[in-house]
Specification:
The chain is mainly α. The protein is built from 8 helices and no strands. The mean pLDDT is about 90.
Length: about 160
Amino acid sequence: MASRHIARSIVLQSLYEWDFYQKKSEIFSVLERNMQEFGGGFDEQDFARALTKGVIDNLEKLDGVITTSAPERPIDQLSIIDRNVLRIGLFELLYEDTSQVPPKVAINEAIELAKSFGGPSSGKFVNGVLGAIYNEMPHEEEAPKPQEDKIEELSEEVK
C-alpha cells in the first residue's frame, strides 16, 4: 500500500475520532498518536500533518461546498466517515497543487477511503459529489483561477 494512501487513512481515522467527540480533542495529538499506532514509521508523516491542517483550516469552506453540492443530505446527517472523506477529497481537489495531487487522484483516493471505511453506498456517494464538483471546475484548457475563487464559484453555482 502506498505511503500517501496510508497517510490519508490515518488522517481519516483521526478526523473521525475528532468529529465523533464533537471536536473536543486536539486533532494534532490524535493524529500523532494514530501515526505512531497505525503508521509503523511510514515516510509521509509531513503529508498527513499538512493534509490534516489543510482540512481543519478550511473546515467551514469545505463544509459549505459539501452542503451546496449535496443539499439532499445535510452535513450533520452524513455519516462521520462520509463527511470526513468528502472533506479530505475536497481539500485535495480544491487546494492541493495539481502537480502533486492530480484531481482524478484526489477523487479516486477519496472513493477508495469511502469504500474501505464507509457503508455500502459510500463510494458511490463520494464519487457523485466529488465528480460533480470536478465537472464544475475549470480544467487545463481554461485559464487557471486562484483556489479561493474556485470554492466561492462552486458554492454559488450549486445554489
